[in-house]
Design a protein that fits this description.
This protein has two domains: 149 residues, Alpha-Beta Complex (Aspartate Aminotransferase, domain 1), CATH 3.90.1150; 274 residues, Aspartate Aminotransferase, domain 2 (3-Layer(aba) Sandwich). Helices cover 42% and strands 15% of the residues. It is built from 17 helices and 15 strands. The longest helix has 19 residues. The structure holds 4'-deoxy-4'-aminopyridoxal-5'-phosphate. 4'-deoxy-4'-aminopyridoxal-5'-phosphate binds next to helix 6. 4'-deoxy-4'-aminopyridoxal-5'-phosphate (PMP) binds next to helix 6.
């Protein structure tokens, strides 16, 4: 054993931050900004709680990055991974090889997902799930003799990952700027964003207009040229935008009529995040393809998946002779350790009661959102299940956004952190919330109490007070 004094810990902490600054590139971060800001190093976690290296206890209201749906420190997951690593740490899916966990996990996903999604391809996360969906769709239309159908449509404010193809379907400025995106076959239609729509309050009108915008875009591109419509059932990274109930089903009907595929990107919304196992389930609809990640392994190890309808699978299968390889695949597709973790995580959701707890505590979450709506800085609260947002505005009546010069999002995050709560602070001053499904009522109330304190603290700062 080595003895470490508090001073040594501080010393090693300081040098870790320096090493981080000099060598570690962080995802979705300003390189220059990070050099001055520095890293916030997290040390351990249990349930809803994180501990940083300074020993601060933090209530995680964002489940890591909307992924740790079962909470931190679930020992049965650790054991499932360790068992599998000891038995067989790796099996390729190439050359017809495979492993039991991958086969069983595919079976479970087919059982649990909406009727009609019968085939599963495993990825490493959400970005390559979206990219794989695009590759399979391209292959499908070539295979069935409709090679012109290549144009894809997605929503403004949508997020579909960080691959070149997925970031192009994404419609958030930072993911396009400097990356020469979107690509020429990628198109966007407006987001069904009730709070920022002049149709707010008239759900039927918002849905009808969205359907019309899809029809118009397809007409503009030519129906024979359009492959697919990609959407998140609830837009996550765009600011947790909750379309009216019935929107997804209406878009499904429109896609069927227009003869284009619908890809539901459920990377955030699946696995109980919005209540049911999958958000599509609540609308009784089946997409042609579904992309999954995050909650699939609850963030304990990396894994994603693409679920595919039999129609798409058979089209691809029929398109090439039995001795022709479909050249898409990754070394770690169907990784046995990730699959073993996925199986245990799914068991925790179902038999372990975590999905049911999430549904129960969802009521408390909704009450928390409603309760904070009266705050002078809050313009809108919205959510479904345990996915929610609090949109801050300078003027409630006019829905005026805060002046970007106030750098409110950064201050919001830092204040929250000091008050012991972690949430997402989006650039346009939307607080994103996605607590783990294992939360207690008390923890849920504590999240909202700490957010309220954070808003009150900010309102005491002169420039913010003057802006409201
Ligand atoms: N699609 C959606 C809807 C997402 O929210 C994300 C991740 N936030 C992705 C795709 C990309 O997933 P990953 O970060 O695992 O590559």
């Amino acid at each position: 054993t080595t003895m470490t004094s508090p001073a040594m810990t501080l010393q090693s902490n300081r040098s870790l931050l320096e090493i981080d600054r000099d060598h570690l590139i962080h995802p979705v971060t300003s390189f220059r900004g990070h050099e001055t800001h520095g890293a916030i190093l997290l040390e351990s976690g249990k349930g809803m709680w994180l501990k940083d290296r300074e020993g601060r206890d933090l209530l995680d209201a964002f489940a890591g990055l909307w992924c740790v749906n079962v909470g931190y420190g679930q020992d049965s997951i650790v054991e499932a991974a360790a068992d599998q690593m000891r038995r067989l740490p790796y099996a390729t899916g190439y050359f017809h090889f495979g492993s039991e966990p991958a086969v069983r996990l595919a079976q479970r996903l087919v059982e649990l997902s909406p009727e009609g999604l019968d085939h599963v391809y495993f990825t490493l996360g959400g970005s390559d799930a979206v990219d794989s969906a695009i590759r399979y769709i391209t292959h499908y239309y070539n295979a069935i003799g409709k090679p012109a159908k290549k144009q894809c449509i997605a929503l403004e404010r949508g997020y579909h990952g960080s691959s070149t193809t997925g970031a192009g379907l994404t419609a958030l400025a930072n993911f396009h700027r400097g990356f020469d995106l979107p690509l020429r076959w990628q198109h966007h239609i407006p987001s069904p964003y009730p709070y920022r729509s002049e149709l707010e309050g008239d759900d039927a009108a918002i849905i009808a207009r969205s359907v019309q915008q899809l029809r118009d875009k397809v007409a503009e591109l030519g129906a024979d040229n359009v492959a697919a419509f990609f959407c998140e059932p609830i837009q996550g990274s765009g600011g947790v935008i909750v379309p009216p109930v019935g929107w997804l089903k209406a878009m499904r009907a429109a896609c069927t009529e227009l003869d284009i595929l619908l890809v539901a990107d459920e990377v955030i919304t699946a696995f109980g995040r919005t209540g049911p196992m999958f958000a599509c389930e609540a609308e009784g609809m089946t997409p042609d393809l579904m992309t999954l990640a995050k909650g699939l392994t609850a963030g304990y190890v990396p894994m994603g998946a693409v679920l595919m309808s039999d129609k798409v699978y058979q089209g691809i299968a029929d398109g090439a002779a039995a001795d022709i390889v479909i050249g898409h695949g990754a070394t770690y597709s169907g990784h046995p350790v990730s699959a073993a973790v996925g199986l245990e995580v799914l068991r925790l959701y179902t038999k372990g009661g975590i999905l049911a707890n999430g549904q129960r505590v969802g009521t408390r979450f909704a009450a928390g959102l409603a309760g904070i709506a009266d705050h002078p800085m809050v313009g809108d609260t919205r959510g479904r299940g345990l996915l929610g947002a609090i949109e801050l505005v300078a003027n409630k009546g006019h829905k005026t956004r805060f002046d970007p010069a106030l750098k409110l999002a950064d201050r919001l995050f830092e204040r929250g952190y000091r008050n012991g709560v972690i949430f997402r602070a989006f650039a346009d001053n939307i607080i994103g919330l996605a607590p783990a499904l294992c939360a207690s009522d008390g923890e849920m109330d504590m999240i909202f109490a700490r957010i309220r304190n954070t808003l009150d603290d900010l309102l005491e700062e002169a420039d913010i007070r003057a802006a409201v």
